[in-house]
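Anyone up for a design puzzle?
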């Protein structure tokens, strides 16, 4: 005797769907047994959405299903047992035990330990009586001393732990859920919490939480009308929680300023216990608009002992932080180059470092350079065929800088000179390297006052932010765009 799945559905007439799944529990181990027992007549458990629609239709609880339906309402289908068959797609899920009580539908699918065709008699299916006992027990638990919706929500939140005790692996052990709840409460008061297997030790000392937000910006700039520039931010939030106790609970909120770019493609660490659906459904595949979720992004979790990445995310900021133009003209053994860089006015003008690397691979060594820079210093690495334009820690007040020059090369030696499959002929680039501390391009930050810790002691909270470049290229506007980097932002 076992149950394949259990549902609680609130009946909500005069709403678009006429109902909401308030609780559901599936038992995969029982489902595997059903597949073996039922053979060719096996019908899998559907998702909550299709089941909700089929269940409300079968019970005649949909607002638009008041008309007579022969397949459901004929005299041949008079039901006195509260056991139904639900039409889902082209199959029928049977048997489904379901009944309505106080605007709540209680439903369960018992395991049938034989083929379903021909359909066996109900008296030979022992799981049906167990389904009724389980559903009546859940009903008694929800209805006892229930006064308002808050109490109902509290009891619904206790169901997962209670069913873990009273109906493990789909087999009912005790239908008195209230008695099991009392036993759990007594045990939690008399016994210390059990050390989880994945947490080998506990921290002793002053509580401290460190939060670091690291963003990397990628960019491909071509300065061509027929080729769109590409840029994207990839972020990671790293945490280290030194907290006493075996299982402390922490909630960290990430916030954005008014004009911040929404976070997308959020991937959370397994220790995160729950996430708002709006956080998970925001993806970079869909075009962003004013209705995109802009936070705060709350992450409740039980932290591991070591440092870990709480989440990763992407974001499509309006403009790249540094706009660039690069032009290279080849004349025999000489090259004429022009590089223009402009820092966007919204970006913090305070770098830890900022420099532009201009390689001339697949050529001979640099023998002579005549150049002019409006800002910064130029270093020539002759044997490496590389120019390094050190911009420093700040752009000038104009936010714009230029570099121009003529470069002469010697005889090419394939054994000594560096080779790059991308930087061939006119397909040349400038690659930017920079880091800005205490700044993120999206504006994302962790508010210290929003960090919640449910445990002993008040921890010290420190936060850090930084923005770095990653694959930040400005391509030669006189040459075709390199195909090799076309999938950079995928």
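Challenge accepted. My sequence:
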């Amino acid at each position: 005797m076992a149950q394949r799945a259990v549902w609680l559905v609130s009946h909500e007439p005069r709403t678009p769907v006429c109902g909401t799944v308030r609780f559901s529990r599936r038992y995969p181990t029982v489902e595997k047994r059903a597949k073996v027992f039922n053979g060719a007549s096996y019908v899998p458990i559907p998702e909550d959405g299709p089941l909700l629609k089929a269940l409300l239709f079968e019970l005649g609880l949909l607002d638009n299903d008041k008309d007579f339906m022969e397949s459901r309402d004929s005299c041949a289908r008079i039901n006195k047992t509260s056991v139904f068959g639900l039409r889902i797609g082209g199959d029928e899920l049977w048997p489904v035990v379901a009944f309505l009580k106080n605007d709540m539908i209680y439903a369960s699918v018992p395991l049938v330990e034989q083929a379903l065709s021909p359909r066996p008699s109900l008296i030979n299916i022992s799981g049906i009586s167990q389904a009724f006992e389980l559903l009546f027990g859940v009903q008694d638990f929800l209805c006892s001393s229930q006064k308002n919706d808050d109490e109902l929500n509290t009891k619904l939140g206790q169901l997962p732990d209670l069913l873990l005790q009273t109906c493990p692996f789909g087999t009912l052990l005790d239908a008195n859920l209230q008695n099991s709840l009392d036993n759990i409460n007594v045990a939690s008061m008399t016994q210390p919490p059990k050390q989880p297997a994945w947490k080998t030790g506990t921290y002793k000392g002053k509580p401290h939480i460190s939060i670091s937000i690291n963003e990397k910006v990628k960019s491909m700039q071509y300065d061509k009308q027929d080729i769109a520039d590409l840029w994207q931010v990839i972020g990671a939030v790293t945490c280290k929680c030194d907290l006493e106790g075996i299982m402390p609970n922490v909630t960290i909120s990430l916030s954005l300023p008014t004009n911040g770019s929404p976070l997308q493609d959020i991937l959370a660490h397994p220790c995160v216990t729950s996430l708002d659906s709006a956080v998970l459904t925001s993806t970079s595949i869909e075009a962003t608009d004013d209705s995109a979720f802009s936070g705060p992004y709350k992450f409740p979790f039980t932290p591991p002992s070591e440092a870990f990445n709480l989440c990763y995310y992407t974001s499509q900021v309006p403009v790249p932080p540094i706009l660039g133009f690069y032009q290279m003209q080849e004349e025999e053994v000489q090259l004429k180059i022009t590089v223009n860089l402009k820092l966007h006015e919204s970006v913090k003008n305070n770098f830890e470092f900022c420099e532009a690397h201009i390689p001339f691979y697949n050529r001979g060594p640099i023998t002579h350079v005549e150049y002019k820079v409006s800002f910064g210093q130029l270093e020539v690495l002759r044997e490496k065929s590389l120019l390094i334009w050190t911009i420093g820690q700040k752009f000038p007040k104009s936010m714009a800088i230029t570099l121009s020059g003529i470069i002469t090369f010697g005889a090419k030696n394939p054994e000594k000179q560096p080779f790059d499959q991308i930087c061939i002929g006119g397909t040349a680039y400038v690659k930017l390297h920079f880091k800005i501390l205490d700044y993120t391009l999206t504006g994302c930050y962790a508010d210290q006052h929003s960090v919640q810790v449910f445990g002993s002691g008040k921890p010290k909270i420190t936060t850090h932010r930084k923005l770095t470049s990653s694959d930040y290229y400005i391509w030669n506007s006189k040459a075709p765009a390199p195909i090799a980097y076309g999938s950079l932002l995928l």
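A detail worth pointing out: The longest strand covers residues 460-475.
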